[in-house]
Design goal:
Blueprint lengths: L6 E2 L1 E6 L15 H14 L3 E4 L13 H14 L3 E4 L11 H7 L1 H6 L3 E5 L3 E7 L4 E8 L3 H14 L2 E6 L2 H5 L1 H7 L7 E6 L9 H8 L7 E6 L4 H11 L2 E4 L19 H13 L3 E2 L2 H8 L6
Parallel strand pairs: 1-12, 2-3, 2-11, 3-4, 4-5, 5-8, 8-9, 9-10, 10-11
Antiparallel strand pairs: 6-7
Helix pairs in contact: 1-2, 1-10, 8-9
Length: 297
C-alpha cells in the first residue's frame, strides 16, 4: 500500500462545482467534455481523475446517477485512468438520512473505483482583500452520521474512499469510523489546504498532517488557488502524492497570470516538478496496485 519514495501518484480534478466558464472558459461541463479532459489529463501523466457531475447546459451541480453513469462510460471508452467521483455538495448537513442515501445512490450504482469522503464540518469562505468583504461565506455541515452514510454507499459499491481533510481534526475523525467498521485501513487521505476556514496552507501544516496518519496509509495534497504550487513542491519532498486541475486552480504560475488552457497543462507541470526531484509518476495500473484497487473492469 505505502508508496516507495521515488514514485508519485498524480491526480487531476477536472471540474468542481463553484467555478464557471465566466471565470475559466476551459472548464468541462458535459459527460463528453469531462471524458475528453480525462483523456488529456491521462495522456499528460495523471493516474487518477477526480470528477464532479455537472449539468451539460449551464454547469450546475448534479448528483444524477444517469449523468455520472455517462461520465464513467465515456471516460472508460477513452482511457484506463482511475475514476474518482465526488460525494460532496453544498446542501450537505441539511438533508435527512433518507435524502442523503437517495442522493448518494449514484455511488453504488455507477461504482467508480474511488470516491471522495469529506471528513468533517467547517466554516467555508472566500475573502476579497481588495473589496474588504467575503465573496461567499457558508457553513459546510458534515456530522459523523452523514460521513458514515457516505462511507456506507462506498462500501456497498466496492468503492475506495478518499478521505478529504481540511484540518487536522478531520484526520482524527477517521478513528471512530474505523472502530465502527465503516472504514478499513489502509486509508487514502487528501489534505486540502488553502480554503478559508481550514488549516493554514503552510509546509509546516502539511508536514504535521502527513505525520498524523498510519504508516501504511497514503496521502496527497490538494492546494487551492495560489498556494497550490508551493504545497505541491512540499508534498513531493515529503513523499506524498499530488493533485492539480481546474477545480483547484486555473493558473500555471503562483502569481495567477498564466491561465492553463485545460487540465493537461497543469498535469504536465506537476509531472515536470515530480521528475525534477527524482520522483516518477505512476501509471494508472501501478497506482491501482499501490492503493489496493482492483484492475479496471
Amino acid at each position: 500500500m505505502a508508496l516507495v519514495k521515488d514514485k508519485v501518484i498524480v491526480t487531476c480534478a477536472l471540474t468542481g462545482v463553484l467555478a464557471n466558464r465566466d471565470q475559466c472558459p476551459y472548464l468541462p461541463y458535459s459527460p463528453l467534455e469531462i471524458a475528453e479532459e480525462a483523456k488529456r489529463a491521462y495522456d499528460a501523466g495523471a493516474a487518477v481523475v477526480h470528477i464532479h457531475g455537472r449539468e451539460p447546459e449551464g454547469g450546475a451541480q448534479t448528483w444524477s446517477a444517469e449523468i455520472y453513469g455517462q461520465i464513467r462510460e465515456e471516460v472508460r471508452k477513452r482511457c484506463p485512468v482511475i475514476i474518482n467521483f465526488s460525494t460532496g455538495g453544498f446542501n450537505m448537513g441539511v438533508e435527512t438520512p433518507e435524502e442523503k442515501r437517495a442522493r448518494l445512490e449514484y455511488v453504488w450504482k455507477t461504482r467508480p473505483e474511488m470516491a471522495a469522503l469529506n471528513m468533517g464540518s467547517m466554516n467555508y469562505g472566500k475573502y476579497s482583500e481588495k473589496r474588504k468583504a467575503f465573496v461567499f461565506d457558508i457553513v459546510f455541515l458534515n456530522p459523523f452520521g452523514d460521513i458514515a452514510i457516505a462511507a456506507e454507499a462506498m462500501k456497498k459499491g466496492g468503492v475506495k474512499p478518499e478521505l478529504e481533510c481540511f484540518d487536522l481534526g478531520h484526520v482524527r475523525n477517521a478513528e471512530p469510523l474505523i472502530a465502527m467498521g465503516a472504514l478499513k485501513p489502509p486509508l487514502q487521505y487528501s489534505f486540502i489546504l488553502g480554503v478559508l476556514g481550514g488549516a493554514p496552507p503552510t509546509p509546516e501544516t502539511l508536514q504535521l498532517m502527513s505525520r498524523s496518519i498510519g504508516p501504511q496509509d497514503t496521502w496527497e495534497v490538494i492546494g487551492i488557488s495560489k498556494v497550490q504550487w508551493k504545497l505541491l513542491a512540499t508534498a513531493l519532498v515529503l513523499g506524498g502524492n499530488v493533485r492539480v486541475g481546474l477545480e483547484d486552480n486555473f493558473y500555471l504560475d503562483s502569481a495567477g497570470t498564466q491561465m492553463a488552457k485545460g487540465n493537461a497543462p497543469l498535469v504536465e507541470k506537476a509531472v515536470r516538478m515530480a521528475r525534477d526531484v527524482g520522483r516518477e509518476p505512476l501509471t494508472s495500473d501501478e497506482a491501482r496496485k499501490a492503493l489496493g484497487i482492483p484492475q479496471a473492469w
